[in-house]
Amino acid sequence: MTCLLRLSKLGIYWAAPGVLITLAPPVKSLVRFGSYEFEPYSGELRRQGIRVHLEGQPLAILKILLERPGDLVTREDLQKELWRQDTFVDFEHSLNAAVKRLRAALNDSADHPRYIETLARRGYRFVAPVNGVNSRSEASGVSPSAAPVVPVFCDRSLWLRAGLVLFTLAVVIAGWRHWHQPPAPPAAEVIRSLAVLPLQNLSGDPSQEYFADGMTEELIGKLAKIHGLRVISRTSAMHFKNTQLSVPEIAKTLGVDAIVEGSVIREGNQIRVHAQLIRAANDEHIWAEEYQREYRNVLAIQDEVARSIVYQIAIGLAPGERKNLTASQTVDPDAHEDYLKGRFYFNQRTEDSLSKSIGYFQKAVAKDPSYSLAYSGLADAYALLGFRGGLPSKDTLSRAKAAALKAVELDDTLAEAHASLAFIAETHEWDWARAEREYKRALELAPGDARAHHWYAGYLTYVGRIQDGIAEEKRARDLDPLSLPVNNALAGRLLVAGRLSEAQDQVQKTLELDSHFAPAHQTLGWAYLNLGKHQEAIKEFHLAVELSGTDDMDRMLDLGFAYAVTGKQSEARKILIQLKQLHEPGLVPSGSIAILYGALGELDEAFAWLNRAYQERDPELTYLKVPGRRFEPLRHDPRFHEIVRRVGLPD
Known about the structure:
Structural class: alpha+beta
Helix content: 40-55%
Number of strands: 17
Largest sheet: 6 strands, mixed
Distance between the termini: 107 Å
CATH topology of the domain at 193-328: Rossmann fold
Shape: elongated
CATH class of the domain at 193-328: Alpha Beta
Number of helices: 27
CATH architecture of the domain at 193-328: 3-Layer(aba) Sandwich
CATH superfamily of the domain at 193-328: ABC-type transport auxiliary lipoprotein component
């Protein structure tokens, strides 16, 4: 008696007593719809034989829809299947974004669906005809289902033998599947750092560059507030405006996992923004979206783009961060226009451009008195002009403080305004405790703000916590790797720590970025002076003056200092005369004259001017405790320690 058993799903045939065994490998089923083929076993989607990249939640949603073609798959079903109940992700937004990505992969439309239909507030349905085939039977033209299952009756011994054979075959099949199963695709690397490249101005109007640049800066500012995400600062990102470099090349230079790029078109009162997120290592496009709004809703677009990026990279959000990404201040469109122009000129950092930026910020707050960011911009511009001596410092820094206080009054979560208040408390008021509180508050609100890290590094250096200052400056450099001021400041921090060799190396790295950057030659001059290389020091200070212009009294002061301490008294006194002439209109602070008198060895004159500097609240006195620099010739006089005490610095 012959007994035939067939297990069609496993492709197994067994015959007794002739014992004919056929073992066929499991087939890989295919699902076809439209011009697409989907293989659930490997998770591959192909269009006309070409693989379509799809992974993560969009891939999982496609699998679920194809398992139930024509049926409603509710949003609740998808949430249970794909999202943990305790996840930090906003489920509604994340699901919508995943379906958009799936539709993009299928070239489908929500308005005129060919594949995925949305049932408002209920869920989704796969509406295209679905054909299921398998790869082995398709090739042979024979369907495994054609062979019938044959019920048989055999004696007990045959059943025992059959059971043993089937058990053995099950083990063989399990082993075969284990060794032949394609390896699971490697998990995508988590994105912990990114750079937002300058948005392209596609308006056809070069005068709109300020608008594209302003939107780039504001998007960077939004993302910089997210803890756990390193966002490259605007200064470094702008190096790649109109670049021909590839995304992987840019990412390697900046040391980031992903790149955001896009464009903006402004036509009348309409604005259209396109943005996309690209994984840097393999130039993989993760997400893309286009937004079209009226210009008055431009801030809402920035929020939407930032929110979408955060969801795509799955960075956990604290409650405050989530709130920052879901609500924007309503701003008068004309005021916002003036604000962007103000930032455009502020970022040029010249005395003339800073003055222009103040004018635009003032126009912005006049049009919209509740616009906190415009007040913050006004504070930044006044503070920079006052600190650099472009305007009389006492008056200018007072205006800066008033603007910063107004910004914080309007919005206490504005990190930029807290950083400005810290800077003013440090350089103008010498309220060192408050300065540190404000810096910490700014960095709590925006941990990715390179400028706040840079300023805080200066504070730490001035109060004598030099190693902490170096560490903080390195954080700023990580966020703004191509910034000339930050790279040069790091060299300066290393210099005052006595790490002269490292300081020289860091100066050279800065000069590799721009060999004509005057402050770097100034820092190199100080390195040579500390090493006793007087001729080299004077040469570098000379070069710094030539590059910045002879009206730059800060560089002139260092050249005069180098002349004085190396015995070139007559040259030093010529510069002293220039400084004193410019002191009368308030363009040179008293502290600079005190420093040069100290270098010349005229200590009584030096301390007389130093007392005047104290009365003027001269920001130059911020540097009193910094070793190896301008105040070094005065350090051993008892009067110096009294000045340090009055300024409030720990002696």
